[in-house]
Amino acid sequence: MANFPYDVAILGGGPGGYVAAVRASQLGLKAVVIEKDKLGGVCGNWGCIPSKALINQAEAYHAIEALAHMGVKIDVSGLDYSKVQAKSRGAAERSGKGVQFLMKKNKVEVVSGTGTLTGANEITVKAADGATSKISAAYIVVATGSRPRELPGMEFDEKQVLSSTGILALTSLPKSLLILGSGAIGMEFAFVMRTFGVEVTVIEMLPRILPVEDHETAAVVEKAFVKNGVKFLVNTKASTLKKTATGVELTIEKDGKTEVLKAEKILVAVGRVPNTADLGLEKAGVKLDRGFVLTKDYYQTDAASIFAIGDIIPSPLLAHVASKEGEIAVEFLASKLKGTHAPHEKKLDPMAIPGATYCEPQIASFGLTEEKAKEKKIDYKAYSFPFTGNGKANAIERPEGLVKILYNPKTHEILGGHTVGANATELIHELLLAKKAELLPEDLATMVHAHPTLGESVMEAARGVEGWAIHI
Ligand code: FAD
Predict the structure, then answer these.
(1) I want to staple 88 with a disulfide (CB 3.0 to 4.6 A). Which of 50, 82, 246, 396 is the partner?
(2) Protein residue closest via CA to atom 36 of ligand 1
(3) Is 146 touching ligand 1 by the criterion CB < 6 Å?
(4) 3-class DSSP state of 130
């Protein structure tokens, strides 16, 4: 192989790209990251981290109610949302600095500018001042991420028609907000906005909210949101949007009838589009399908020296997925260049990828839902253990929640795990570890869990599968 100044050049410094760079460096590869904006990508700057900073503050605000039960009097009239938003930006900034530190520590070179593939081993970078440079490497990993999907007639102006980026940039609260889409992003912002007193209406085209989650766990979230005053319109199609001097008017179609909804702003959260145009991918021999890059084992594209990971490939658009894909790709490259062991996973097992939504109550899952199992005609049984039977949930007054296991009726192999309620996004991992390690519910059922913990619900759900849950 020809001599290249770098073993691997990584296009994009989000959780896919920067994690791939650190792992490459750990394995002795010389890596460079090309980033046109800020290190950390959408996740660190306009996604996971700033949104969780808002959610954390919304939860703190919500907790005021618990203080009121103790007779504590708090005057909430001084709420200054610009300070809430500033804290969220602070979290994003710290996250970016953290990634900068990791690049330095791991001796990964970072080049600022917009990169385009100009050969199987070459990226041309255009800096902000217009200067261009060329970077060549034995291998290229493309990790350019995604952007919010725009709907025709509802283009983002980030004033009245907001994307997830626009809503994270708001420094004052609207009086009312329409949210198109009840996926993770829509539901997280619905929680934040409603908690701070905004009138929130969520519009969902499908028959129920959180459509990718199991119906039973999604119902727990729906009940809690409705109790908190969020309005849901399901089976509802948004047809046209009109901007007015005071806000927006959205025409919807439901049950054959048309209605106009008015609000100060609208958040359009109906999915994301991969950033794959104008990168020179096709010219370099990379195959795409509807904008997503197609990959083989180890995330290699049809061009042998080019790999693709993260939001630009058709796997779940999640930060931890992007990172893991990056690790697998560069571990494979190290095996080729340095003779280290190839990763044992050629690609992520889609049945063992956790997904989480951090609203309150939290919801998380992996593998099959009941709906998917039925659709795929997979024989299954399900057991759900409710938080009402859990001592800790009752002590902390959080009885809304459950742990659900879908399993093979003959072998008891875990087919899906679902958690909803307090700490659900942490609890999911015990079930997932069992799945990954090919443990059975009986292993979880017989492991001693500390009391009182929410984790005991996982043990009880596993006992339920075996027919002997105690606290129900
Ligand atoms: P990105 O993070 O999009 O990074 C790509 C990087 O490439 C960017 O920095 C971009 O500037 C750069 N780039 C693009 N083109 C070029 C070019 N030509 N030259 C140089 N650089 C380029 N996921 C979770 O797992 N958990 C969550 O809680 C979560 N919350 C989210 C909340 C919101 C509001 C949003 C919008 C997303 C959330 N996500 C969450 C999704 C998560 O942010 C993405 O899945 C993740 O960021 C994808 O990582 P990536 O590395 O593929 O791409």
Answers:
(1) 50
(2) 47
(3) yes
(4) coil
> Ligand 1, from 10, 35, 43, 162: best to mutate by most atoms within 8 Å of Cβ?
43
Whether ligand 1 lies within 6 angstroms of the CB of 11 is answered as: yes
At residue 320, the 3 state secondary structure works out as helix
Closest residue CA from atom 3 of ligand 1: 145
* Mutational pocket test of ligand 1: of 52, 144, 313, 353, the residue with most ligand atoms within 8 Å of the beta carbon: 144
pLDDT in tens, 377-422: 999 999 999 999 999 999 999 999 999 999 999 999 999 999 999 9
Burial class of 440 by CB neighbour count within 10 A (0 to 12, 13 to 18, 19+): middle
pLDDT, one tens digit per residue, over 434-443 is 999 999 999 9
Cβ contact 329:309 at 8 Å: yes
CA distance 296 to 298: 6
355 lines ligand 1 (CB under 6 A): no
Instruction: Let me know if 449 is a catalytic residue.
Output: no
With beta carbons less than 8 A apart as the criterion, state whether 330 and 343 touch. no
Peptide linkage before 361 cis (omega within 30 of 0)? yes
Please check whether residue 404 is in contact with residue 216, taking contact to mean a CB–CB distance below 8 angstroms.
yes
Q: Where are the alpha helices (DSSP H) in 196-279?
A: 215-227
The secondary element (H helix, E strand) that includes residue 420 is strand 414-421
**CA–CA dist 128, 147 (Å, integer):** 20
CA distance 278 to 43: 22
- From the CB of 359, is ligand 1 less than 6 Å away? no
Q: How confident is the model at residue 1 (pLDDT cuts 50, 70, 90)?
A: low
Rounded to two decimals, the pTM is: 0.97
Of 358, 335, 355, nearest in space to 423 by CA: 358
The total number of residues written for the chain in this structure: 472
Q: Is 286 exposed, middle or buried (0-12, 13-18, 19+ CB in 10 A)?
A: buried
Q: Whose CA is nearest to atom 11 of ligand 1?
A: 37
Q: Which residue has the tokens 């992007």?
A: 322
Task: Please indicate whether residue 357, judged by its CB atom, sits closer than 6 Å to ligand 1.
Answer: no
